[in-house]
């Protein structure tokens, strides 16, 4: 036991020195990276724990940490269940996640995650004084976990997930990571595969429970109407969300093919990374596709390139069919639950490693179809256009798949309260 404590302290010192030494290089990379250069100086003071809690009261304090926008959206139903009884501090790594959480107004205090350096993170703990630290999915921050453990703060991971790709990395450096993952009191995972991977990394010494995915419990009420997007009921809307490099070319070619025969077709394409907008514009221009940027407000074009955050769920809700990106190319896929929750037929590629369970459930209920290339995508869109009954049936099946997995949040809330009472 004494040997383990000494090893953890050694690793903490090593990690913090490495972290500090690497900061100048990380800063340079971020400044010259279009994906991150707008993030790096945003509310920079929060990265150094310069903050003050608002309206802090005597309620039990829960610190919930989410990586980005997707995780903040996922935790919404959890926040809804906790916000009246507890004082909630919510942190996010990214600007988009922080701003969405701020606008959501379901947490008492929202800020960016401070740098995971001992004095900075320790300062944040002293400001927040959390009774419990709740981590979403695979948020494993070494200094954060160490300080929470030293202060005897309960650490719970909810919606725990670990893709096969991530697992290979953690497994390779298990001698380091398991010292800190074992500090988590309870890990509540999405699937048995995720549970097995966490159990392996913690040598079976951490309590691991399978709950299912809390993302199924989101409210999928239709907030938007077609007229909000200048669409008529006769328009056939295809949306492609979270597309990755190599997929926009396929989608653009399909658009050119399908639009020759169907005048009422509308394409909405939202790339995973907005830093690639200029590259996608060139792809469209090279194919002589007339397009509009969503931010321009001109939505009358037949091809809309979505260049803003936070609109994809609205677009899914008014679409006829939805393609979820990252799986025709081998990027592990993106979350197919949201379009399915709106009762929309879902298309994705075969490489859904990051959302294996979710994609399998949709396929089991016949609420989704696999597309391997542009020909598959074209043929499926054509079939949906020509056969409305088929479209409606697949959409209903997608919704059934989502409904079959609900009530995970109530289970998670129960486990959180159990740990708070111990």
Structural summary, described in words:
The chain is of the alpha/beta class. The chain has two domains: 187 residues, Rossmann fold (3-Layer(aba) Sandwich); 178 residues, Rossmann fold. Helix content is 45%, strand content 16%. The protein is built from 18 helices and 14 strands. Helix 5 links the parallel strand 2 and strand 3.
How would you describe this structure in keywords?
422 residues; 2 domains; seven-stranded parallel beta sheet; Rossmann fold; alpha/beta; 18 helices
Major sheet strand order: 3-2-1-4-5-6-7
Shape: globular
Look at the structure and give the mean pLDDT: 93
Distance between the termini: 23 Å
CATH superfamily grouping of the largest domain: 3-Deoxy-D-manno-octulosonic-acid transferase, N-terminal domain
CATH architecture of the largest domain: 3-Layer(aba) Sandwich
Specify Rg, calculated over alpha carbons. 22 Å
Residue windows where pLDDT falls under 50 for at least 5 positions: none
What is the overall number of helices? 18
**DSSP strand (E) fraction?**
15-25%
Helix and strand content put the structural class at: alpha/beta
Provide the CATH top-level class of the largest domain. Alpha Beta
Query: Could you name the CATH topology of the largest domain?
Result: Rossmann fold
Helix content: 40-55%
Q: Major beta sheet, specifics?
A: 7 strands, parallel
What oligomeric state is this?
A: single chain
For the record, the count of structural domains works out to: 2
